[in-house]
Amino acid sequence: MKKKLALYLVSAVLLLATHSCGVDEKENAVLSPYAVLHSFKIGNIRSEYPSFTSAGEDTLVAKTIAGSSFPFTINQMSGEVFNVDSLPYATNLDKLVIKTSLSGYAKLYVDSLDSYEFFSETDSLDFSYPRKMRVTSADGNYVRDYTVTVNVHRVDPNLMVWDDYEAPEVSSPSRAVEFNGAMCIFGNVGGQLSVAMSSLAGEPEWSVQSLDELPSAVNLSTVHSFNGSLFVVAGDGLYRSADAVNWELAYAADGLLAIVAASDESGEMLVATADKLLSTIDGASFTAVGDVPAGFPLYGVSIASYTLSHNSNFVRYMLVGYTTAAMDKAPVVWSKLSTEKGWSKFDNEGNPFPCPALEGLSVVRYDNFLYAMGGDFKSFYISRDNGITWKEPEDFYQRLPKALIGMKQPFVVTVDSNNVMWMVTAGSKPAVWKGILNRLGFAK
User: Fold this and answer.
1) The sheet that has 276-280: what strands, in order across it?
2) What backbone torsions phi and psi does residue 24 show, to the nearest 5 degrees?
3) For residue range 80-104, what is the model confidence (pLDDT) as tens digits?
4) Model's pTM, two decimal places?
C-alpha cells in the first residue's frame, strides 16, 4: 500500500511539473519579441496560357501549375522574398493562396493601400505586383517588413522569335559558318567566289571580299571550321584559311568529295574520297582509316558533332546527306562515336518518321536536338533521338519564319555560339533571318 501511494505521489508531481512547464512555455511564446518570416510557399495555380491550334490559330489552354515546384528564397537582411525559378509564361498571379511559417505566435499583415491588414491564409492575394508584408511579434513591440515578388516569365520561353535583315550581296549562298567571332556567308557575287562577313550581335553589317586563291572547282558547301582554321574541299585537295579570305592548299589529293566530321571536342577531322576515309588531327597530315561504307552520304552533307550528355569524353558524329550527286534519292543518316572505328547507318525500313526528303535539305543541331529544314519551309523536322525519328513540333512554338512558309528558294543555315539560328535566303526575296528560342537567350 505504501508503494502504491508513493507511485501516485510521484505521478502527481510529474503531472503538475509538466503542466507548469507548458504554461511557462506558452507565456514565453506569447510574449516572444521575435518577428521573423521563416518560410513562404504558394499553392497550386489554375491558369490559362496562349497556344495554337493545329490550324495555327490562337487559342488558350488551361493548365494547373504546382506551386511546390517553385521554392521561395527569404533574404532576412534585405527583407526580400522571391522565387529564383520563374513561374511559367502567362501564369495568372491575381489570386494566389500562400502558406507561411512565423516565429512563435507572431502575426502577419499585408499592405492595403496606405495601411496593413491582418492576413489569413484562407484568403487569396494578388501578386501581379510586389506586395509588402509585415510580421509583428507576439508582444507587439517588434515588426519586420518584407517585400514579396513572385517572378513569372514575361515572354514564352519556348517560343522561337525571328528577325529579318537585309541580305549580303551573295547571289548564290552556299555555306554559312561562324568563324573568329563573325558570321561568314560563302557564295558567288557577279561570278566571283566571295565571302560576306559580319559580327554576330545586332543587325548584320556585311563586308564582302573575293576569294581569289580558291580554284573554280571548289565546293563552298563543304566549308567547315576545325582546329582554329577553315577548310574546304576543292578539285585538287583540301584548302585551309586562317581568316576566311586568304586560302592555301593544305592537302593535295584528287577525288576528295566531302568533309564528313570536324570536331574540336575530339580533335579529329574526317574527309572522304569516293572509296576512302581519311583522318587528320592538324589539317596537314592525313591517315587512311578505312573504306567508305556502301550507301555512305557524300553529297549535300550536313554534319554535327557533340559530346554525350552523360560522358563528355565521348563525341557523337552525325552525318545526313545523299548517296548520289543528283541528290535524287531519299537522304540517309549515319552516326558513330569517337571511340568507334566504324559508322552505323540508321535503317528506315519500318520507320514511320524517317529523315524528310526535302529539297535543299539542311540539318543543324539546335537546343540539343537535330533540326531539318528545306522544301517549302512548311516546318522544322526535329529529331530528339539522335537522328532516328524526325517529327514536326506539335506545339507550334518552334516555327520557321511565317514569311518563308510555302516558298521554295535557295538557303543556307547555321547556329552560332549565342544560340541564334541564322538562315540566309536567296531567290525573289533574299534576306537574313536570325531566330532564337526565348529561353536560350535568358541571362543565367
Assistant:
1) 258-263, 268-272, 276-280, 287-291
2) -60, -45
3) 999 999 998 888 898 999 999 998 7
4) 0.77
